[in-house]
Each structure stands twice: as C-alpha cells, then as structure tokens.
Amino acid sequence: MLELGVKFLISYFIGSLMGAMIVGRLRGGVDIRTMGSGNAGGTNALRTQGMLFALFVVVIDIGKGVIGAGVVPGLELPYVATDPEISRTWLTLCCAAAAVIGHVWPIYHGFKGGKGAATFIGTLVVLGPALIIEVLLVWVLVVVLTGYIGLASMTAATSLPLWLGITRLPEDQPLFIYSIAIAMFIIYCHRSNIRRMRKGVELRNTKFMLFSRTHTNTNDDAA
Q: Residue 34's pLDDT is what?
C-alpha cells in the first residue's frame, strides 16, 4: 500500500500544478481566478486572455494527466518497493484519478482549480487514446447544438462509460469503473453550471453554435 499511497500523492501534486497559474506567472502575474468566472481552466483562460494563452494552459493541463497516468505508476522510487500485491492496472488508474483531483483541488493554489476535463483527456491519452475521438465528438456535438461548454463536458464524460459498457465489457472493467468515477466527479465539479441551467440563467457561447448567428460570452467553464 505504500507504493500506491506515495504514487497517488505524487500524481496529485503534479495535477496541482495549474496551467493557468504557470502561464499567468510567465505573463507577468496574471491570475485568471480574479477574472471572468473565476475558474482556473482553459475556458476562462480563452475568454479572458485569448487563444494563445488558453492553448498553453490546456497543453499543460492535458500534460499533467499524461504524466500522472503514464509516468508516475512506473517510477522506481527510493525506499518505496514495488508492491506485488497491487495491480499495475489499478495503480495506473488511481494515479490518473489523482492527477484529475489535483487539477480541481490544487494544494498550491488554495484548492481552487479547474473542473477536471482537460486533465481527464490527458489520462485518456495513456489509458485509451482511441477513446478520445468518441469523447471529443460528443463534446463538439453538444457545443454546436447548445452552446453550453459545461454541458458538453459533462455529456462527453458521461458518454465514455456508456460507450465502454457497450463495446469493451467485461474485458476493460477497471477502465469502465474509472470512467464512471471521473464522470460523476466532473458532473459534481459542474454543479454551479447545472444550477444556472435549471434557473435558465446559464449563458451560451453562441459563436460555437451551428444554428446561431449571435455571439455571446458565457459563464460556462469546463477545463
């Protein structure tokens, strides 16, 4: 259990390195948590700082998921022996989840981070690259039909376990369980978006909508 605990924490600490804060510091101390929706994710970065800033933020946030799922589980650490009783599959999935958790509740930034979507995509780069296509297709479909980026992220995350349940069970049961857990977590992180949609006050990013000619900024955040 020592190996699992230590590597979980390492992945969490890596996940806590917020792309928005890193890029903001390089840009002279910009803190997007004081701007727009106050979210430290890619969507708020795009809205408040522009495309290039947001691109670097998303690359870093995706990279955290790649490192958490693809590098940390295989590390040989001093004083931490490889535990033969721990499944390598489950170790990888736990480290992947830790990176997502770190992105949402970063220890270095007062536990105020993003909403998990970008880092989740990063973990899929390792866990199942082909699955990214399905997730992104659903995300794009919801965005162009509704303009709600948060709704698109929740729907895309929820579609993954459904897809895995249809196409990969029982062989990929661990990945199926991971996808359910992360989908529920991402929905929880978007609870403010859900409240605004229920009240009818969630604004749409209509510039991405297929059937809209108006352009409106939103309070919607997903990354």
A: 83
Structural domain includes residue 101: yes
Q: Give CA angle at 165 (159, 171), nearest 5°.
A: 135
What pLDDT is recorded for position 219? 57
Using left for φ > 0, alpha for ψ between -120 and 50, and beta otherwise, residue 115 falls in alpha
- 76: Cβ contacts below 8 Å, ≥ 6 apart: 82
Instruction: Say how many domains are in the chain.
Output: 1
Domain assignment of residue 128, yes or no: yes
86-128 pLDDT, tens per residue? Answer: 999 999 999 999 999 999 999 998 898 899 999 999 999 999 9
What three-state secondary structure class fits 201?
A: coil
Enclosing domain of residue 105: 2-208
What SS3 class is residue 80?
strand
